[in-house]
Amino acid sequence: KTTEEGPERAELFWEQARLRRALGRREDAIASAQEVIERNPEHVAALALMVEVHATSGRLAQAAEALVALAGAGETPPAQRKVARFGAIDIFDVRLNEANPALDQLEALVGEGDADDKAVERAVGIATRAELWPRALRFAKLAAERAQGAENRSRSRLRVVEIQRDKLDLREDALRTAQMAHDVLPTSLDALRAVHGLADGDERARRAKRTVDALRESMRAEGPGPERMLSVVQAAQLGADMVLARAARRAAGALGG
Predict the structure, then answer these.
(1) Which of 24, 93, 99, 185 is the least buried, fewest Cβ under 10 Å from its Cβ?
(2) In what helix (H) or strand (E) does residue 26 lie, and over which residues does it extend?
(3) pTM to 2 decimal places
């Protein structure tokens, strides 16, 4: 096979592949398509035919690999590339239970700007189920970066804390992330507890005071209530301010809490 014959021979083999597929000779069509790809590895139509025939023949692993090749071809249109990647992800994740290659395709989608929030959450789920914690952390951080609204941003950072602290023993990183979660939503007792479990005494007291102050501000704006007052009790207890905790408990009782 010479360099000169490559393009012309590739097109001849492609016509042969199309004819064989039309005649229902799927395995022969695969053989012809493979000849095309050997001469032109980025022949989009031949790659798509490989996907089709492998999938309809039940060869899921080969279909997934063909989808990966199709997605990676430089001539594949962006919309088709995105569909190919998601198709490969579905096969790797759902049918073959192979987490790493599914996550490879999700990483590629992120790099290509095609991973929406749902795809990122799917990646977190796949990595978590497979206990691939460094990869779960990478996607959980990405989800946290994208989160909108104070509650969602704080909650998403707390998920990162859980992975850093409980799965990877990255306690210093976990503390910084917990502090960010608390900065985003100072009224959050969950964020305060995360900091409390990782920080020293002085930082615990500072953070507890900040939560109490934020809860008081919230009550001034929206009115007191037993639930908010009980939150003050818990924040004061975490900050070891038992005098405030007792006073807030009495106030909560007076409000019906």
Answers:
(1) 24
(2) helix 26-39
(3) 0.89
